[in-house]
Structure formats: structure tokens, C-alpha cells
UniProtKB/TrEMBL annotation, chain A:
Transmembrane segments: none annotated. GO terms for molecular function: branched-chain 2-oxo acid dehydrogenase activity; metal ion binding. This is 2-oxoisovalerate dehydrogenase subunit alpha. Keywords: Metal-binding, Mitochondrion, Oxidoreductase, Potassium, Thiamine pyrophosphate, Transit peptide. GO terms for cellular component: mitochondrial matrix. The branched-chain alpha-keto dehydrogenase complex catalyzes the overall conversion of alpha-keto acids to acyl-CoA and CO(2). It contains multiple copies of three enzymatic components: branched-chain alpha-keto acid decarboxylase (E1), lipoamide acyltransferase (E2) and lipoamide dehydrogenase (E3). It is found in: Mitochondrion matrix. Belongs to the BCKDHA family. The keyword Cytoplasm does not apply. SUPFAM superfamilies: Thiamin diphosphate-binding fold (THDP-binding) (SSF52518). Its cofactor is thiamine diphosphate.
UniProtKB/TrEMBL annotation, chain B:
InterPro entries: THDP-binding, Transketo_C/PFOR_II, Transketolase-like_Pyr-bd, Transketolase_C. This is 3-methyl-2-oxobutanoate dehydrogenase (2-methylpropanoyl-transferring). Its EC number is 1.2.4.4. Pfam families: Transket_pyr, Transketolase_C. CDD domains: TPP_PYR_E1-PDHc-beta_like (cd07036). SUPFAM superfamilies: Thiamin diphosphate-binding fold (THDP-binding) (SSF52518), TK C-terminal domain-like (SSF52922). Its cofactor is thiamine diphosphate. It catalyses: N(6)-[(R)-lipoyl]-L-lysyl-[protein] + 3-methyl-2-oxobutanoate + H(+) = N(6)-[(R)-S(8)-2-methylpropanoyldihydrolipoyl]-L-lysyl-[protein] + CO2. The keyword Cell membrane does not apply. GO terms for biological process: branched-chain amino acid catabolic process; response to nutrient. Keywords: Oxidoreductase. It comes from the Eukaryota.
Length: 443, 375
């Protein structure tokens, strides 16, 4: 790593020297021009363009802006892999109670992932997606938000929802598509949503939430109650046209929205070097006129600090902010994916064993004397127990009433749909026994 | 009643195309004018109160003015709406309601609709404009996968019912491939949205106000050829016309004829010709709302006439006439005395120089009435 950075620096120096050489050549040419009176004064060089599309200086140097020659945006970090704060001034100094709560939520999230991943393997739920490796990104970014802030997610943000107060029962009910689920069993597992927690319901099409988040932020700005929108998306989703739309709309319409990218290195099997050639996602900010920062997503305090500052910018200045949180997707993309088909177990193990957000925070807490092995074992045991209890409960709840096939398509069931409802009713009167109707709640 | 000359003049006067062209009335030759239907003004119900001579873009402007005045959360946005819009529909609204309520967006249709959905999910009223219906396709994903399913997929936790997408549609005489399309059937296959097409200024104002205030996302397609051409006495006040309710425009006894938008004016001419030359009495129905559709009104009519013709500008295969034809043959099988006829655009892209022979014009509609009634 170091040598790579070194060679990049060396290359930059060489280029810098070349530029100097070119500059002096240009100056000679300029002198010649002045002597021949083709240019009157040295101010010509400083003259600003008047093109409406961009106001800039003129130059006589034929020079492309070459992204490869620029240093990548630095990754903001507060503590190292051992949980030691590198610069005490950066420590958010959160109270013990809050830090422990953040840690407990991360562990609870892991426990839920473990149980539901296994449950899918046993065929008890149809689908699941874990958050392994991204616990710090999720909890760290959720913590600075106010309850009135609106969240739009992609699908790997269960931790955000958990931190905001979504109960284990609610998670389980959704994955089980049972009658207690807010979504009435209509969407696949992990497509959570909660009105009371201001978390917009997840949908599968990638990046569609991004311009929506900009629009929601515009509405919040008009409401003027000091709230912002946070929009999560992955590095793959950022390639969608809707991401471009969202960045540009958010910037031109001054929307208080935080565009939070979880850059975990993969979009299913596609590594980031097949996803983009620029400096990740954060570098796109300047192209859109958006303030951007890159953070170490395995460092919960770095994420927390960046989010706190971004929220302040968004709410106080009505401006968008991009946060790119660098992580590694330790788990498979989903239960329908085997990630060993496209990456090595050694690579996964590095992030799991040597640079993990949960262990890093645990070390921080241990260093502070707030935590020990005994407490940790106890927490893990309780977390799993809580999950299993909620899981068992959700499994026993009936499926939603079949009448909910028809509700919520529109605010009211239109006549045209009532005709189909009638048709199904007649059919089920004859063949109902073939459809396991007894699994469904009676309305 | 407008003469066809006036229709063409006022239609073609200032049509700004996406390419930055300005088409003018002189584009039309006297021969091409004959392809355009004559707009016949109607009388608004008396209870809607005082009226004013208004063309369709002014009626739409009036609807948005009322929507903005009666709802502080209402905003209208899209490409070039701030200065009044390329068809003048948002004239003076920014001056009246401010830059934060009437504003230009970047040139990006998926962004416009996504942004509108977002506003609507916060309980605000979003009136988004897509400059031409031909350019709504980049937003197809946002409309079909997002707007239409927002309420259903969240179990009613969230919805974007405050969203209305307005878009100029249909033939305009010289719009070629991308200033002429009628994409309603693409959207008819999508549960969760409403799709509405008005036939003139009175209808446009009342139906647009209903769309804006409806609790469901609506796509409102404005037949652009009528923006200036169609003029009638439009009520100046606040009124709404019902959605999902077809209207019998002209009662008749022999053949049921169904259409929407500009096509109704072509059909009216064909019906008049059928009456005069064949003594056939047509019942002309304006469907008004494509989905959720009011099939009952058509059924009632077909049970009486025993014959049905559906006509639309859009291509035949997969067009909405197919849905009507198949529904009616099922529900009115014993009443039908002739096959259901469809008179539609051909299954080609919308052509420039062949527009007149592409469109289901008066003669093709007349011929269908003749065949059907003689079957």
C-alpha cells in the first residue's frame, strides 16, 4: 500500500516538473506575443470567460484534467484497528451509556442476521440479506439523526432501523410476511418500513429512492422544521441514472439531504473496478457542486462525526452532502448468492477477523474499562435468546387476510378491481381447499 | 365553432419542440389541414358558475392556479416551467406563487418523477410536468415500479397520492416520432396509477383539478393539438369532474363509438357523416379515464346498440382498444351483432410526412361505422 502511494506521489512530482517546463515555454511564447502586440497586457492571461455555462480563467496551456494524477480523497478515521483514538480532539466523547447502546445494537443486528440467515437455509423464510461488516456504518450514521429526520434506504440498512427503535417482533413479522406486518405480507423479506420511525419502505429497484429523497428533502425545507433526509445506497446503485438525477436535483434545488453511500467493494459479484474508474463515489461530489467526505466505515466514530457534521450542513444551509463510507461486504450478497464463486475466503477473513467495526468498538470500550469478556458473552447470549423468542412468535402468526390482495392498490378499491375480487371469491368458493386458506387470517 | 384554418393557425403558432425548433402555422399546407378534426365547443353545467372564453392551455393554467391557491403545499416543476412552459401552461404562476413553488428542474425525466414522488411522500402536492409524453419513458421505472406501487408495497404506511404528472401527448400535425406519441396503453398495464385524457378545455380543467386532489398518483395526458385550437366557455371557478367515469357525449341507438382526447373530435365528424349519409345513429362515449376504467358505461351502451367501435391514435397492437374490445365481447357477448372494430394508428413508429395516412382519421372511422352497422 505504502509503496503504491509512494509511486503515485513520485509520478505526481514528475508531472509537476513537466508542467513547470511547459509553463516556462508558455511564458516565452507570451513574451513573444506581447512584443508583436498580439496581446496587450499581462491581464489577458487572467481574463475570465463570459460563457454562461462556466465562468473560469482562460489559459494558453493545452492541458487535460487527468483524474489519475490526482490524489484520492482521504479516508477520515478517528480510531485505529485496536480501538485507540488517534487524535483525542477527534473523539466525539460520547457518554458510556450511548456507546454501550450503540454496541449492543450492532451485536443484536449480528444475532438477528445469524438466526434469519439460518432460517432461510432451512426454508423457513424465503429470502434474507445480512449486514455483516456494515454494522458500524449503519449504527454510526443512525445515531446523530433526530426522530423527525426521514430515512430512505436501499435494503442493507436494518441497523439504522434497529437503532431508531424498530422492534425485533417487527423485523420478524416482516420476514415472515405474517398478518402483523405493516406491509401486509406483500413484499419480499428485508423490505422493511415504518411510518412512526420515519423510515420509508424499502423497494427492490436500485437507486429509485435517491431522487425521491431529494424531493422529500425539498418538501422538508419548505416545512421549515429543521429536519433533513438521509438516503442510503450502495456503490453499485450509484451507477444508476437515478443517482445522477438525485445528485444534480439535490444540488440545483438546494435540498437538505445526506446522500450516504455504503461502498462495500461489491455489487453482487461485480467489484468496484468494474463499477467505476473514478475515485469512488465521494469524488463525484465536486462535479455536482456537493460537499463530500470519505470515511472509514469500520470506524463507528468516524461515521458518527461525519454524519453529525453533514446533518448540520444540510439543515443549516439547505444543502446536500455526500458521505462515502468505506466498508467490506463480509457476508454473501443475499441468501441467493454464494460469494465464494467470485472472491477468496482469505480476503473475507481479513475483514472479518482483523478489521471489523464491532470488534473495533469493543476494543474502544474495553480500553475505557466499560466492557469485558463476561459482559460480552452475556450480551451475545441474550441477543440470540431475544431473537429466537421473537422468531418463534412470528412463525406462529397467521398470514394476512386474502382481502389484502386488493386493498392499497389505490386509496379505495375501484369498480374495475371489485369485479376481479368478485371473480376470485367465486373461484375460492369452489376450489378454496386447494389454496391453504386456513393459513390466512379471516377479516 | 372554429374553422379548420383557425385550428391550424392557433395550434401551430408557437410549438417549441424539444429540438429547439419553432414550428409555425405556415408549416401546414391547405391540403394537410383537412386531416385535422374540427373542435366543437361545449357548454359547461350551469352549477359551475360564471364562464370565460378560454383555450385548453389557459384552462390548464387556471386549474393549476386554483390548485396552488387552495393548497399551500402544492408545487409545480419540470423542464422550462418557470417562464411559463413551452406550451404556456404555467404562464405567470411563478410570479404569483414564488420561485420555491414553481421552478425549473434539471433536464432529466427520471429525476422529475422521482423528485415528485419524494415530495408527495411527505404529504405535499407535486404537479410534475414532462415536456412531451414521448419523453416520459425515462421515468417509466419511477412511475411503474415506484409511484404505482408505493401504497401497496408499504401496506398503506406510505403513499405518493399527491403526485400528478402532466404531459402533452398525441398528434400535432408535424411532430414526427417524438412529439406525437400517445403512450397511455403502456401505463394502462400498471395497477396503482390513474391515467386521464381530456377532450377539451372544460374537461381539462375539471379533470386536472380532480387528478391533483386525488389521493393516487395520476398521469394526465394533454392532447397538445388542442392547447390553442380548442376554445370554449370555461367556468372560471373551482370545479372538479369525476375520475373513472366515462361520459356519453352524444346519445345514439345503432353503434357505440368510444374514444378519448383528440380522437373524439374525429369520431364526432365520422358520426355526423354516418348520420347524414347512412342514417346510422352513433352513441359517442368519451372514456376520459383510461385506468381505473369505467367499463360499465360502455357495457350499458353496447347492450343497447349491439355494436362497438373503439378508436385511438396509438398503434393498434397492445393499444387500450384491445382491452375494451376483449372485455366487452365477454360481458356483452349475447348483445353483439357485429365484431368489435378497432380503428387505430398503424403498428409503426409515428411518422412525419405520412401523418395524415397514419392517423385513424374521419374516413377510416366512418368506414368502420359503415361496416359494423351493415354486418
Amino acid at each position: 500500500m505504502l509503496s503504491a502511494a509512494g509511486s503515485r506521489l513520485a509520478r505526481t512530482n514528475v508531472l509537476h516538473n513537466n508542467t513547470l517546463l511547459k509553463c516556462s515555454a508558455t511564458q516565452t511564447w507570451l513574451r513573444t506575443c506581447r512584443q508583436s502586440r498580439c496581446m496587450s497586457t499581462s491581464t489577458t492571461e487572467k481574463e475570465r470567460t463570459r460563457f454562461p455555462g462556466a465562468i473560469a480563467n482562460y489559459t494558453q496551456e493545452l492541458k487535460f484534467k487527468v483524474p489519475k494524477n490526482e490524489e484520492p480523497i482521504e479516508t477520515y478515521r478517528v480510531m485505529n484497528k485496536k480501538g485507540e483514538v488517534i487524535n483525542p480532539e477527534c473523539d466525539p466523547n460520547l457518554p458510556e451509556e450511548k456507546v454501550v447502546h450503540m454496541y449492543k445494537t450492532m451485536v443484536q443486528l449480528q444475532a438477528m442476521d445469524n438466526v434469519l440467515f439460518e432460517a432461510q437455509r432451512q426454508g423457513r423464510v424465503s429470502f434474507y440479506m445480512t449486514s455483516y461488516g456494515e454494522e458500524g456504518t449503519q449504527i454510526g450514521s443512525a445515531a446523530p439523526l433526530l426522530p423527525g429526520d426521514v430515512v430512505y434506504g436501499q435494503y442493507r440498512e436494518a441497523g439504522v432501523l434497529m437503532y431508531r427503535g424498530f422492534t425485533l417482533d417487527e423485523f420478524m413479522n416482516q420476514c415472515y410476511s405474517n398478518a402483523l406486518e405493516q406491509g401486509k405480507g406483500r413484499q419480499m423479506p428485508v423490505h422493511y418500513g415504518s411510518k412512526k420511525l420515519n423510515f420509508q419502505t424499502i423497494s427492490s429497484p436500485l437507486a429509485t429512492q435517491m431522487p425521491q429523497a431529494a424531493g422529500a428533502a425539498y418538501a422538508l425545507k419548505r416545512k421549515g422544521e429543521g429536519h433533513c433526509v438521509v438516503c442510503y445506497f450502495g456503490d453499485g446503485a450509484a451507477s444508476e441514472g437515478d443517482a445522477h438525477a438525485a445528485f444534480n436535483f439535490a444540488a440545483t434545488l438546494d435540498c437538505p439531504v445526506i446522500m450516504f453511500c455504503r461502498n462495500n467493494g461489491f455489487a453482487i459479484s461485480t467489484p468496484t473496478n468494474e463499477q467505476y474508474r473514478g475515485d469512488g463515489i465521494a469524488s463525484r461530489g465536486s462535479g455536482y457542486g456537493i460537499d463530500a467526505i470519505r470515511v472509514d466505515g469500520n470506524d463507528i466514530f468516524a461515521v458518527y462525526n461525519a454524519m453529525t457534521a453533514a446533518r448540520k450542513k444540510a439543515v443549516e444551509n439547505n444543502q446536500p452532502v455526500i458521505i462515502e463510507s468505506m466498508t467490506y461486504r463480509i457476508g454473501h450478497h443475499s441468501t441467493s448468492d454464494d460469494s465464494s464463486a467470485y472472491r477468496s475466503i482469505q480476503e473475507v477473513n481479513y475483514w472479518d477477523k482483523e478489521d471489523h467495526p464491532v470488534s473495533r468498538l469493543r476494543m474502544y470500550m474495553t480500553n475505557k474499562g466499560w466492557w469485558d469478556t463476561e459482559k460480552d458473552d452475556e450480551l451475545k447470549k441474550t441477543s440470540r435468546k431475544n431473537i429466537l423468542a421473537a422468531f418463534g412468535k412470528a412463525e406462529k402468526v397467521a398470514k394476512p387476510s386474502i382481502d389484502h390482495l386488493w386493498t392499497d392498490v389505490y386509496d379505495e378499491i375501484p369498480e374495475s378491481l371489485k369485479r376481479q375480487q368478485e371473480e376470485l371469491k367465486e373461484h375460492l368458493e369452489k376450489y378454496g381447499r386447494e389454496y391453504a386458506l386456513e393459513d390466512h387470517e379471516k377479516l | 365553432m372554429l374553422t379548420s384554418q383557425r385550428l391550424a393557425q392557433s395550434t401551430g403558432a408557437t410549438v417549441y419542440s424539444r429540438l429547439g425548433m419553432r414550428a409555425s402555422a405556415s408549416f401546414h399546407t391547405s391540403r394537410s389541414l383537412k386531416a385535422l378534426p374540427t373542435f366543437v365547443s361545449e357548454t359547461a353545467p350551469e352549477e359551475f358558475g360564471e364562464t370565460k372564453r378560454t383555450n385548453m392551455f389557459q384552462a390548464i393554467n387556471s386549474a393549476m392556479d386554483i390548485a396552488m391557491a387552495t393548497d399551500d403545499t402544492a408545487c409545480m416543476f419540470g423542464e422550462d416551467v418557470a417562464f411559463g412552459g413551452v406550451f404556456r401552461c404555467s404562464m405567470d404562476l411563478q410570479t404569483k406563487y414564488g420561485k420555491d413553488r414553481v421552478f425549473n428542474t434539471p433536464l432529466c425525466e427520471q429525476g422529475i418523477v422521482g423528485f415528485g414522488i419524494g415530495m408527495a411522500t411527505m404529504g405535499h402536492t407535486a404537479i410534475a410536468e414532462i415536456q412531451f409524453a414521448d419523453y416520459i419513458f425515462p421515468a417509466f421505472d419511477q412511475i411503474v415500479n415506484e409511484a404505482a406501487k408505493y401504497r401497496y408495497r408499504s401496506g398503506g404506511e406510505f403513499e405518493c397520492g399527491g403526485l400528478t404528472i402532466r404531459t402533452p401527448s398525441g398528434a400535432v400535425g408535424h411532430g414526427g416520432h417524438y412529439h406525437s406519441q400517445s403512450p397511455e396503453a403502456f401505463f394502462a398495464h400498471c395497477p396503482g396509477i390513474k391515467v386521464v385524457v381530456p377532450r377539451g378545455p372544460i374537461q381539462a380543467k375539471g379533470l386536472l383539478l380532480s387528478c391533483i386532489r386525488d389521493k393516487n398518483p395520476c398521469v394526465f395526458m394533454e392532447p397538445k393539438i388542442m392547447y390553442r385550437a380548442a376554445v370554449e366557455e370555461v367556468p372560471v371557478g373551482d370545479y372538479m369532474l369525476p375520475l373513472s367515469k366515462a361520459e356519453v357525449m352524444i346519445p345514439g341507438t345503432d353503434v357505440t363509438v368510444v374514444g378519448w382526447g383528440t380522437q373524439l373530435h374525429t369520431l364526432r365528424e365520422a358520426c355526423d357523416k354516418a348520420k347524414a349519409e347512412l342514417g346510422v345513429s352513433c352513441e359517442l362515449i368519451d372514456l376520459r379515464t383510461i385506468i381505473p376504467v369505467d367499463m360499465a358505461t360502455i357495457e350499458e351502451s353496447v347492450r343497447k346498440t349491439g355494436r362497438l367501435i373503439v378508436a385511438h391514435e396509438a398503434p393498434q397492437t397492445g393499444g387500450f382498444a384491445a382491452e375494451i374490445a376483449s372485455s366487452i365481447q365477454k360481458s356483452c357477448f349475447l348483445h353483439l351483432e357485429a365484431p368489435v372494430e378497432r380503428v387505430c394508428g398503424w403498428d409503426t413508429p409515428f411518422p412525419l410526412v405520412f401523418e395524415k395516412i397514419y392517423l385513424p382519421d374521419k374516413l377510416r372511422c366512418f368506414e368502420a361505422i359503415k361496416k359494423t352497422s351493415a354486418f
